[in-house]
DNA sequence: ACGGATCACACA
DNA sequence: TTGTGTGAT
């Protein structure tokens, strides 16, 4: 249920924008295939059944009668010339990465002019208050001779005009009114800023978007879609009352579902205006104190929700549904799909770690299921979570265990015996895994190093602690100096602009983490080998571990993360001496910036001198494609193992190898 | 037997 | 905290 935000104590008038990309998935595909621009186009996923489901429709196609909620076949029927583009598929499921990344591009442009909140893959809120105030002080619109063309095309809510030309003329005059009140002048500034931003998005990312500009999030969101595509709408506070009066209650954000229905059926409220008849107390009595106040406020256009300064998602999820007859009925099929989902999830959290220096702490498995027998007493399949350990194999293992725990609970004690391999009674209609509790790591303190350091800590391992203390000293000093040299590489936790792919796109794609298996049926987690086509990485891997290398390392291996309550990074950054295994084992998996942190003062890498320990490796879990990036002597060493593994009778046994050069690239498996 | 795949958030 | 439910795109 929605909740009333206390009006911020600082009650100065805010300028809020809501920016909405027009039929975003279509635009992403049209940027990839410019010949589709201007043509009726739609994006579909899963083409097998009735031509797939439309998830985005271009405005040209809409004009020709195509709407969302249509199947691909229906669209072809009403509009034979429509171009249908399929969502990419990886690991047998829809892969939305290209859209997520394109959305991040836009966010990083929009974030330049104020606090920015990524509301969804194609929507953003902006708090432009500061920028608008600055503009009003320095270059107020009334002082301009002419208004930027894009801003001139703004729609001013409540401003009446006869024809289209008249509208532009009126809007232009409204924006420059010298007799406007302070609020409206700020709004005009906001409109100019948003118009500018939208032009930048178009120029730099080649996407059009629409926007709403108002004094709060609710109003900005309400109008951002009023004039689409590629237009913007401004809400002067003088027009709010009239606007809301006749607005159907279900159009309000948060009232599109059961709560809105309850307002209609229980209270006879069909428009926002109808809500005005109820006192705050009455609404609180009916809907609770928070929701009641919230309703009373929104009926009057009051909404104190702040724009959260958040450019990155708070969780990552990978899921797939198995409708009707496709329901999963064996443990083996569930495990297969869980493995696919976990592989994608691992790739995404590793990408997040590498790009944004964030670590996910919780793994959750969700499922929905039906029971064919015992069909009454419908039960929900319970979701289960546990601490998240990095690495495909670990996530797969944990996810499977979580699923089995859920299944046992779902079936209940009578069915426990039949939990086995043959189908009985139950079917899984959807599966998903997600990574949450993602925390940013402060930069420049060596805390990434220390974090993973701790993850490897085993209570039994009492190493020579004094050497670690010395090393950590080296870490901090090195890191500090590095930060001063490269201030732009600093991560601002509250304004962490995602740097989309830039370091990646320059690389050979076979080396980037974004390589994806197009083959969904594959069972193994190992991606295709880079096939001698020149991998990005040179010989001297030690000093220049590329991000691609790191990513692939993480993709295939384990950063174990057994501590459940590890959110407090400050704790990690504290002064207690590291309690665990050696430092250099983390080198290969740290992002480039942090490699600097583990240099010692003389600039050379600080390798463990206690070279006596043996290390465990699970060869099965080594990503083959990483091999080509390693120094040649190590490549040879690994190929020997891999060949040995392929011979029958020698598989599955974890190899024990003496710590040597290879230890710089692979960290030890945890003893379990 | 189809809105699929993701997200956020309030509440218990 | 973990898990559930709602609502959104």
Structural notes for this entry:
With 672 residues, the protein is α+β, with helices and mostly antiparallel strands. Among the domains are: 316-438, Dna Ligase, domain 1, CATH 3.30.1490.100; 447-664, no CATH class. Helices cover 37% and strands 14% of the residues. The protein is built from 24 helices and 17 strands. A six-stranded mixed beta sheet has the order 7-8-1-10-11-9. Strand 10 (209-214), helix 9 and strand 11 (232-234) form a beta-alpha-beta unit. Helix 4 packs across helix 8 and helix 5 packs across helix 8 (182-205). The two termini are 43 Å apart. The chain binds a DNA duplex (12 and 9 nucleotides) through strand 3, strand 6, strand 12 and strand 15.
Strand order of the largest sheet: 7-8-1-10-11-9
Distance between the termini: 43 Å
Indicate the structural class: alpha+beta
- The total count of strands amounts to 17
Low-pLDDT runs: 456-672
State which percent range the strand residues make up: 5-15%
Shape: globular
Mean pLDDT: 70
For the report, how would you describe the main beta sheet?
6 strands, mixed
* Helicity range: 25-40%
Number of helices: 24
Question: What tags apply to this protein structure?
Answer:
672 residues; alpha+beta; Dna Ligase, domain 1; four-stranded antiparallel β-sheet; 14% strand; DNA-binding
How is this fold's topology laid out?
Elements: E1 16-21, H1 24-32, E2 41-45, E3 53-57, H2 59-63, H3 72-78, E4 83-86, E5 89-90, E6 93-94, H4 97-110, E7 115-120, E8 123-127, H5 129-138, H6 149-152, E9 155-156, H7 164-176, H8 182-205, E10 209-214, H9 217-224, E11 232-234, H10 240-245, H11 258-267, H12 272-275, H13 280-287, H14 289-299, E12 316-321, H15 331-356, E13 358-371, E14 384-387, H16 392-411, E15 426-440, H17 447-455, H18 465-485, H19 502-505, H20 547-556, H21 569-573, H22 592-595, E16 614-617, H23 624-627, H24 632-646, E17 655-658
Parallel strand pairs: 2-4, 9-11, 10-11
Antiparallel strand pairs: 1-8, 1-10, 2-3, 5-6, 7-8, 12-15, 13-14, 13-15, 16-17
Helix pairs in contact: 4-8, 5-8, 13-14, 15-16, 15-20
The structure holds a DNA duplex (12 and 9 nucleotides).
């Amino acid at each position: 249920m929605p909740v009333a935000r206390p009006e911020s104590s600082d009650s100065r008038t805010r300028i809020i924008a809501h920016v909405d990309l027009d039929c975003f998935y279509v635009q992403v595909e049209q940027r990839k295939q410019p010949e589709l621009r201007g043509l009726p186009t739609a994006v579909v996923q899963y083409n097998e059944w009735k031509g797939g489901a439309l998830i985005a429709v271009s405005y040209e196609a809409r004009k020709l009668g195509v709407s969302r909620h249509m199947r691909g076949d229906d669209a072809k029927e009403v509009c034979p010339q429509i171009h249908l583009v399929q969502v990419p598929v990886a690991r047998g499921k829809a892969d939305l990465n290209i859209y997520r990344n394109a959305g991040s591009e836009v966010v990083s442009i929009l974030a330049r002019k104020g606090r920015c909140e990524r509301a969804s893959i194609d929507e953003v809120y902006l708090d432009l208050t500061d920028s608008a105030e600055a503009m009003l002080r320095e270059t107020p619109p009334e002082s301009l001779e002419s208004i930027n063309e894009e801003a001139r095309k703004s729609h001013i809510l409540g401003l009446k005009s006869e024809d289209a030309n008249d509208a532009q003329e009126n809007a232009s005059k409204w924006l420059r009114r010298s007799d406007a009140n302070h609020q409206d002048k700020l709004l005009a500034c906001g409109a100019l800023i948003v118009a500018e931003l939208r032009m930048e998005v178009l120029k730099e990312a080649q996407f059009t978007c629409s926007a709403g500009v108002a004094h709060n999030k609710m109003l900005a969101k309400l109008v951002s879609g009023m004039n689409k595509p590629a237009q913007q709408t401004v809400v002067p506070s003088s027009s709010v009352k009239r606007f809301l009066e006749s607005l159907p209650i279900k159009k309000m954000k948060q009232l599109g579902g059961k709560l809105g229905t309850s307002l209609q059926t229980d209270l006879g409220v069909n428009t926002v205006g109808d809500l005005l008849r109820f006192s705050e107390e009455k609404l609180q009595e009916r809907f609770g104190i928070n929701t009641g106040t919230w309703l009373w406020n929104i009926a009057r256009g009051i909404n104190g929700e702040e724009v959260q300064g958040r450019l990155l998602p708070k969780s990552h999820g990978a899921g797939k549904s198995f409708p009707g007859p496709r329901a999963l009925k064996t443990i083996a099929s569930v495990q297969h799909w869980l493995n696919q989902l976990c592989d994608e999830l691992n790739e995404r959290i590793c990408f997040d770690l590498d790009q944004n220096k964030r670590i996910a702490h919780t793994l959750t498995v969700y499922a929905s299921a039906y029971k064919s027998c015992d069909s009454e007493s419908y039960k929900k399949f319970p979701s289960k979570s546990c601490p998240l350990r990095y690495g495909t194999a670990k996530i797969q293992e944990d996810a499977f265990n979580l699923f089995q725990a859920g299944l046992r609970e779902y079936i209940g004690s009578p069915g426990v015996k039949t939990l086995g391999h043959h189908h009985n009674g139950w079917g899984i209609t959807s599966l998903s895994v997600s990574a949450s509790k993602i925390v940013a790591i402060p930069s420049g303190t060596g805390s990434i190093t220390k974090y993973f350091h701790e993850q490897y800590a085993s209570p039994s391992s009492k190493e020579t602690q004094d050497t670690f203390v010395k090393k950590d000293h080296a870490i901090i000093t090195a890191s500090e100096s590095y930060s001063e040299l490269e201030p732009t590489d600093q991560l601002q936790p509250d304004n962490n602009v995602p740097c989309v792919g830039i370091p990646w796109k320059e690389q050979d794609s076979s080396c980037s983490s974004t390589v994806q298996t197009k083959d969904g049926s594959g069972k193994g987690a190992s991606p295709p080998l880079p096939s001698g086509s020149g991998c990005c990485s040179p010989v001297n891997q030690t000093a220049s571990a590329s991000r691609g290398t790191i990513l692939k390392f993480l993709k295939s291996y384990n950063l174990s993360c057994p501590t459940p309550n590890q959110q407090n990074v400050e704790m990690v950054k504290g002064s207690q001496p590291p309690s665990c295994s050696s430092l250099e084992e983390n080198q290969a998996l740290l992002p480039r910036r942090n490699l600097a942190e583990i240099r010692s003062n003389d600039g050379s890498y600080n390798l463990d001198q206690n070279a006596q320990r043996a290390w465990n490796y699970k060869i099965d879990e080594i990503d083959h494609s990483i091999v080509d990036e390693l120094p040649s002597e190590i490549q040879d060493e690994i190929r020997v193992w891999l060949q040995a593994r392929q011979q029958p009778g020698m598989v599955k046994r974890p190899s024990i190898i003496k710590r040597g050069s290879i230890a710089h690239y692979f960290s030890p498996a945890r003893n379990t």
